[in-house]
Amino acid sequence: MDFITDPMEIERRSMEIIKPHLAGLELSEAETKVYSRIIHASGDVEYAPIIRIHPNAIAAAQAAMKAGKNIYTDVEMVRTGINKKKLAALGGEVKCLIADDEVARMAKSEGITRSMAAMRTFGKELEGAIVAIGNAPTALYEVLRLVEEENILPAVIVGIPVGFVGAADSKELLAKNEKVPYITVEGTKGGSPIAAAAVNAMLYQLS
Hints:
By secondary structure, the chain is an alpha/beta fold. The chain contains 10 helices and 6 strands.
């Protein structure tokens, strides 16, 4: 059996296969790289027409990264997928509180999900930072509540929760917000690898 074994060649060939599916979308070079990483991570070219990137999202995220801002995630899978070494070189960390004991107690006492409690606990730390949500629609709803009710404004929200309950609605609400730039995907598609891929695509473009 003949197959490619060089990782760089596999990635190069993958991007060649993806490229025609982005034709006609009128993407900038930076947007093309984000789209390509998302599609590469999912193995699904059907993402191409449903990815939504706010015009200021990539520049805002990269400015925050270069300023050493942290990235706050809803679950460990997103935190694990982000290139922490490259972010650390810029002065930032990737943080997740989903397994924190105090967060678990808050979730139980207030009757909310752990991911909601985690975002609520982060609170003002999210100001000017990057939020990356790949699993829990409730976490995205909570971040948007913090934006609207407490005027806590992240630099950008990468909101790509997955699933059939709340995911599509939470992402639609994100795309309607006028205060914070965003990257999202319409409908039920998404997930932790997709959110991490979007973040890494922006991170890898920084020298």
